[in-house]
Design goal:
Number of domains: 2
CATH superfamily of the largest domain: Isopropylmalate Dehydrogenase
Order of helices and strands: EHEHEHHEHEEHEHEEHHEEHH
Strand order of the largest sheet: 3-2-1-4-11-10-5-6-9-7-8
Helix content: 40-55%
Largest sheet: 11 strands, mixed
Radius of gyration: 21 Å
CATH topology of the largest domain: Isopropylmalate Dehydrogenase
Structural class: alpha/beta
Function: Catalyzes the reversible formation of acyl-phosphate (acyl-PO(4)) from acyl-[acyl-carrier-protein] (acyl-ACP). This enzyme utilizes acyl-ACP as fatty acyl donor, but not acyl-CoA.
Family: Belongs to the PlsX family.
EC number: 2.3.1.274
Subunit structure: Homodimer. Probably interacts with PlsY.
CATH architecture of the largest domain: 3-Layer(aba) Sandwich
GO molecular function, one term: phosphate:acyl-[acyl carrier protein] acyltransferase activity
Distance between the termini: 42 Å
Shape: globular
């Protein structure tokens, strides 16, 4: 099956062109139907393509030397959307020259450009940033919002739940994913007025393609007890950074423990299969690729420090969302819900 080509912001991220091209090439080796629009400095892109046979034939280069800096304010980057590699990659989706865009650049700038170019889907107030996180269960958990919206009301949270459930059905194949709201406790009386109001609306809504199961506390996000965790962007970003920090802490602690003495080094050799499994599970590159849900187009944010494997995973996320038509899935789900249950304004 052929797919619309994927626009790659080749200049974004900590590693830049080499890693972005290497990641795209890795994704194409896994799925040879992938085709790309590579946006960035033509000379550097061509040099990177030389080490990946077959990529040149599957790619078109859109030359651009202007880059959005990692610490650049979104408002300033937005004014340069038509001249930067990030802005041109997103614009290619708007013009229909690509089905999706992938960037490892500045998250705030990417969100601002994507919202301006692609607009929010009819019936939705705001897009949300969603990502897959590892769990102890059979499937990863989808969490949103992770920073696109600092403050959210009950209506926003309900809409995020609808979008997250649609994404979860694509990833897990479960037609009724388990959805919970992030809260400080599981009792019905806990949380802010907006969280409680969102829970009431989700319980009362008919026709939702999900199982709403109330609240989840932050320490249970990775237990595998739910498929979608919904929250405002401020809380979600803090929770995500805490999870990533805990993963790095465990990994570094194990390295220190196993290198402290001859005896511990022998213990490492004995336990190496288990530690390798742990390392694989905690490696963020294996879960790379956050998605801006709720836009009229697919935009995927790769982690800025992602290696080639991480970039390849982000490309595959974009391809999967195109293949399963995430935009129409969300639109259909929203259309099946009584607007009153969403708290229509």
């Amino acid at each position: 099956m052929s797919l619309p080509r994927i626009a790659i912001d080749a200049m974004g991220g900590d590693e830049g062109v080499r890693t972005m091209i290497e990641g795209a090439a890795l994704a194409r080796r896994r799925h040879d139907r992938f085709k790309f629009l590579l946006v960035g400095d033509e000379t550097r892109i061509k040099a990177a393509l030389e080490t990946h046979p077959g990529m040149a034939e599957a790619s078109e280069i859109l030359h651009c030397e202007d880059v959005v800096a990692g610490d650049e304010k979104p408002s300033r980057a937005l004014r340069r959307a038509k001249t930067t590699s990030m802005g041109l990659a997103v614009d290619a989706v708007k013009r229909g020259e690509a089905g999706a865009a992938v960037s490892a650049g500045n998250t705030g700038a990417l969100m601002a450009m994507s919202k301006l170019a692609l607009r929010t889907m009819p019936g939705l107030d705001r897009p949300a940033l969603a990502a897959l996180l590892p769990t102890l269960g059979d499937n990863d958990v989808i969490m949103l919002d992770l920073g696109a919206n600092r403050e959210c009301d009950a209506r926003n949270l309900v809409q995020f739940a609808v979008m997250g459930a649609a994404y979860s059905r694509i990833v897990t194949g479960n037609e009724r994913p388990r959805v919970r709201l992030l809260n400080i406790g599981t009792e019905e009386t806990k949380g802010t007025e907006d969280i409680q109001a969102a829970a009431d609306r989700l319980r009362a809504a008919d026709g939702l393609a999900m199982q709403f199961e109330g609240y989840v506390e932050a320490d249970k996000i990775n237990r595998g007890e739910c498929d979608v965790v919904v929250c405002d962007g401020f809380s979600g970003n803090i929770a995500l950074k805490a999870i990533e920090g805990a993963a790095r802490f465990v990994t570094d602690l194990l390295k220190r423990a196993f290198s402290s003495s001859i005896r511990s080094k022998v213990g490492f050799l004995v336990s190496r299969p288990a530690t390798e499994l742990l390392k694989h599970h905690l490696d963020p590159n294996n879960h790379n690729g956050a998605v801006f849900l709720g836009l009229n187009g697919v935009v995927v944010k790769s982690h800025g420090s992602a290696n080639a494997k991480g970039v390849a995973n982000a490309v595959e996320v974009a391809a999967r969302l195109l293949e399963d038509d995430i935009t129409n899935r969300i639109a259909k789900d929203l259309g099946a819900i009584d607007t009153e249950s969403l708290g229509a304004k």
